[in-house]
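quick one: zinc ion bound model?
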Amino acid sequence: MATDSCDGCGRPVSVAGGIANVWTFGEDDGSDGTAMTLEFEDGTSHMLCYPCIGVLPDEPTSADVDRLEQVDGDTSRLEPR
Ligand SMILES: [Zn+2]
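yep, here:
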């Protein structure tokens, strides 16, 4: 398990698995860690913490990642456009 920081909010995170090509939402998908690496439609990939993943739209883009910010230890949000 590697330790790094979230591409969206900069929060320290740990990653258990590899790149996730399928969006697996749910309270517990059976994976460890506090972040996942997501591949986007535009071909970029970003490592994001679960709070950031939770607030991204259904079809996120790297522009959405740029708008992510940390609210507190458990919450992220998208900055208003
Ligand atoms: Zn984050």
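Helices lie at 50-55, 62-66.
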